[in-house]
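#structure-requests
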Amino acid sequence: MVKRVAIIGAGVSGLTSIKCCLDEGLEPTCFERSDDIGGLWRFTEHVEDGRPSLYKSMVSNTCKEMSAFTDFPYPEDFPVFLSNSQVLEYLRMYAKHFGLLKHIQFKTTVISVRKCPDFSATGQWAIVTESNGKQESSVFDAVMVCIGYLSDPSLPLESFPGIETFQGEYFHSRYYKHPDVFEGKKVLVIGMGNSGVDIAIEASRVAKKVMISTGRGAWVISRVFDNGYPWDMVFLTRFMNVIRNSLPGPITTWLVAHRTSQWFDHANYGLIPKDRDVIREPVLNDDLPGCIITGKITIKPSLKEIKENSVVFQNSPTEEPVDVIVFATGYKFSFPFLEESVVKVEKKQASLYKYIFPPHLEKPTLAVVGLIKPFGAVMPVVEIQARWVTRVFNGRWSRKACVSCLQ
């Protein structure tokens, strides 16, 4: 009998999960709470509850050659690094080519996912959904959770003394759309991930002053690398992966520092990562060094205190006037439709085998796809995850099979 699989979310992970279900002879039904596909890559002028939000100018950090699904390359006339609208166009082409849209129920919110009473024998799930104000309950043989982790902003205001007295404007980077909010103002961006740096760069073109506060620094590299090749085509080869995994940690750390500092010396720009033993995702930005050296952006240490119209940084008695604060402080994630016992989330970590399967379930019939931040492109990774999951669902592989392909 064909197994029915519920897929929650119609972004990148959800679309490839539908495709992999069809490839494995499963019957997918995808529930998408909004009215369109695309997830993160679909820009809207307003922030929609429960789905990722992006700014108008967002460009991919990985090149199209490394980012495509394995069986559907990007069109040749697309640029190497893509705007969010071009990635969305690609996803629409992918969905149309493989006939995925007919398996998606739009404007449908998943209210709850619960084990059926006979779960230990059947592995089935009872799912309650809501559409047009009406709730409906259905039973599925398996579930793929594809909601990502970029919907629930982490805004730890308690970590910033004095924020309650601040008379200017402050918001999380999730709510940023256009740089006109910074026109003629003094701007502080807290956090130095890719979004924070992108926002600071855009602000520097219209703002009176821009500062980035970072307690840990970052390795910053250009999208254009050796001999004009995209950075990920140089960094993320099998040969480079063997080197990184084979060498002792201190040597790997030194190599990363050496390669990233060939473009510009991070120490001179106040960007040396505090904990260099931890290799994090680099900041991909072609403009930051130029903005720092021309004074358009100033790098500052962690905040000590926020006052009514200014801030004080660590190891500095001087107050810096500020009109707008942007908290680029990342995201937290949760699964509100799941019982806590199914997937436990503690300190921004989920108890999942290989970031996919809850290890304690009697039956491996629930999987989380896309809850991962790879060092490189997301699409090929979530496609491999979905392949593994659907083959476990139909009994071709065990939960512990093919572990090496996910490492």
